[in-house]
Amino acid sequence: MDEETLLADEICAQMITSDNGWTSDSISAKWLTQVFLPNTPPGRKLLILDGHSSHEALDFVDICVKNEIEVLVLPPHTSHILQPLDVAVFAAMKKLWREQIQRHVDLHNSLTKRKFPCVMNEVWKQKFSPDLLRAGFEKSGIYPLNFERALRQLNESRGKIHSWPFASEV
Fold first, then answer.
1. Dist. CA 84–CA 139, nearest whole Å
2. Rounded to whole angstroms, how far apart are CA atoms 139 and 116?
3. How far is CA 166 from CA 82, 151, 170, in A?
4. What is the pLDDT of residues 43-75, one digit of tens each?
5. What angle do the packed helices 130-140 and 147-156 form, to 10 degrees?
6. Reported pTM
7. Distance CA 86, CA 66 (A)
8. Within 10 A of 68 (CB to CB), how many other CB atoms are there?
9. Other C-beta atoms within 10 Å of 139: how many?
10. CA 126 to CA 30: how far, in whole Å?
11. Dihedral pair phi/psi, residue 88, rounded to 5°
């Protein structure tokens, strides 16, 4: 299947798929123009991303420049420590997500691809909040800026990622 927009029975979410199941340059550019920009206020913005190659594509970069989007690319293998959504929001959503899946399967015997967005949307509406998002920025050390917190977390997870010398060890 080519990239196409799939809508659930109830219009509660939208997703784009690709043949290989991975994101692509065009999917990232569509997300930026169709999701991110319409849902953010005009003016300068900060977008925190992992280092996926689609975030370096010419179209993506051009859209960012034209729309005053500053991009902060996280170092490889650190999003679980430094990305605010990974640090606080997604972790908090996991338990409810599992419960909602089980509830849906109990009622309907399965969770289809068409129903997935609606179930996910319910979890999102129940758990996602400005307070939880603020907690993610604080826990990651991004805002308020706290290098010590971020470095301590990187150091604690060092063996879980891979080993590299920290500046203090060189």
1. 8
2. 30
3. 16, 9, 7
4. 999 999 988 999 999 999 999 999 999 999 988
5. 80
6. 0.72
7. 28
8. 10
9. 18
10. 26
11. -120, -50
